[in-house]
Predict the structure.
Amino acid sequence: MKNRMNYFFVGLILFLGLQINAQTKELNLGDNIPKFSALDASGKEWKSVKNVKSDFLVVYFYPAAMTGGCTKQACAYRDDKASFDALNVQVIGVSGDEVKNLAHFRDAYNLNFPLLSDADGVIAKLFGVPSKLGERSIKRELDGLEVFLKRNVTTSRWTFVFDRKGN
């Protein structure tokens, strides 16, 4: 009987722990932008409460730097910068990549907007963006050198648009 109770409590604790870890706050229409900070591709701290200087902010989450779909998406934002500027829109890209990956990504594709490192998945969780933990790496050739780009968090591809009031 004692063993059965032990198994019951261990099972209950594991279940509750999984439920707590699975909970993320989903943003809804009208919600405020979560306050967060992260390192950008240059290794400088970027803060949501300090660095937003536009009428609109686009925060997009992408799975991994230097991969097919993510590169196409980033280059589309890069190529439409004049349109975004005309509408006073600031674009921010967020992924689970390390800062050095983001620097390679920015430089390889001449990206003209901030890329933020969410290497621990905290920002994704604030926004309610699904993410997976676990080290992943890809190999790319950059300037004739083979480079391994690793990340510990992979987020889903989600985009948020906030107005000047942060909603």
